[in-house]
Amino acid sequence: MGFYGDRIVPRLIDVACGLKANDPQRERACAGLHGRVVEIGFGSGLNVPFYPATVGSVSAVEPADLGWRLAGKRLAAATVPIERAGLDGQSLPFPDDSFDSALSTWTMCTIPDIAAALAEVRRVLVPGGTLHFVEHGLAPDASVRRWQNRLNPVQKAVAGGCNLNRDIRGLLETAGYRIREIDVFYAEDTPKIVGALSLGVAVPA
Questions:
Q1: What does the pLDDT read at residue 18?
Q2: pTM of the predicted model as reported, rounded to 2 decimal places
């Protein structure tokens, strides 16, 4: 990834995604996780404090070594076993039907081949398993979408490949998921181009 991608972007993500204003969304996304969980884009472990007691273990997929190191204090305080078990959400190193739940928070925006990653999550979930998510993406308002499309090349360049304008619901449905619940809204005190959130639960159809 180069110096910027390896050394700077993980710190930027830790700060930007670690804002306290995001905590209620993280808590909502983690609610209902249970059993064996795979977390795609573990980052610096910002979801760890919000894992419910029903979680038995977490397999963390995280490509950035620095992100994993930044997670050190959260890992030490975790009440469930967490292991770094993969580097690439597009190619998960797990057998079929390995997990009861999957978690993705502010991650689908950045994975280069998101269709491949969603197919991999489907593969490793048990029948009836659930994908819990909160993601920023394509806004519900046309005027905001226009600005997202205009600024997307800049966003990708400065934010490690993060896209402003991915259609989260559309991506999930195209990848063969049924949306069990979804809430689309603008985060408070956040510019709408980055604050259009989709939060919910999807099940492989």
A1: 73
A2: 0.94
